[in-house]
Design goal:
alpha/beta, Ribosomal Protein S5, domain 2, 3-stranded parallel sheet, two-stranded antiparallel ribbon, 4 helices
Length: about 80
């Protein structure tokens, strides 16, 4: 939700927002915290949206996300670093 609000209020720029999926828990100070079940979440999303999507994941979930073939993953430690 935070990314959608920032995008709609023109505080961040995303080239193609329909091709981005953001996963993770946002802490009050803007850090992205890991989430459980990241592999299942990405596999489910991949079935729905296809291969041409960029997955933004918490850096602490990167190793798990990279287990999934044929996806583009961008790790981040905070919302600020993502943009």
């Amino acid at each position: 939700m935070a990314v959608a609000i920032l995008f709609e209020s023109s505080q961040i720029q995303i080239d193609n927002p329909s091709n981005c999926i953001f996963l993770g828990e946002l802490s009050l100070d803007g850090r992205l915290k890991s989430v459980r079940g990241i592999v299942g979440r990405i596999l489910g999303a991949k079935k729905l949206v296809g291969p041409d999507v960029v997955y933004y994941v918490p850096h602490s979930n990167l190793e798990q996300a990279l287990l999934i073939p044929d996806i583009t993953v961008k790790p981040s430690t905070s919302l600020r670093i993502s943009f």
